[in-house]
Specification:
31% of the residues lie in helices and 20% in strands. It is α+β, with helices and mostly antiparallel strands. It has one domain. A 4-stranded antiparallel β-sheet has the order 2-1-3-4. A 3-stranded antiparallel β-sheet has the order 6-5-7. β3 and β4 form a beta hairpin.
Length: 149
């Protein structure tokens, strides 16, 4: 009976610790899954959460796209993709619904000049300081995959 109780307790702890949710980006501590650089610039970063609960961390949109294109080609494997909101330090936003700014005046860590924003207001405010183009998730992804930035 004691063994059953211990087994149930360990199962419960394991179940609770395997929550499928995004974690805050650990700037200064975490390394990019694609290029292995340390996450440093709090305007940039991304995470992919798989259906199995594995989290992949990236220092930039372009690293996330390149990694996803090579290692996570089956969309059914992916639960969530989030980006750092360039206008709100520490805020993670849904990558697929984000607005993207391509501006040569605001370089991203790997040089594609792509930053993400949660809404039109923050995008417009940032764009007034750093002129550039407005892209959707698919436009930004295509730009990275085609190295057209």
């Amino acid at each position: 009976m004691k063994t059953l109780a211990i087994s149930c307790w360990l199962f419960a702890i394991g179940f609770i610790s395997c929550t499928n949710d995004i974690k805050p980006l650990a700037y200064g501590n975490a390394s990019c899954a694609n290029c292995k650089m340390l996450l440093a610039d709090k305007h940039f970063g991304a995470e992919i959460l798989t259906k199995t609960g594995k989290i992949y961390v990236f220092d930039s949109f372009e690293c996330m796209v390149n990694f996803k294109n090579e290692y996570l080609t089956d969309e059914s494997q992916i639960d969530k993709i989030v980006m750092a909101d360039a206008s709100k330090e520490g805020s993670l936003i849904d990558a697929r619904s984000a607005l993207y700014l391509h501006s040569r005046n605001f370089p991203s860590p790997m040089g594609a000049y792509i930053s993400a924003f949660a809404d039109e207001n923050s995008f417009t405010e940032f764009k007034s300081k750093y002129p550039g183009s407005k892209w959707s998730y698919s436009q930004a992804t295509d730009s990275v995959l085609n190295k057209n930035y």
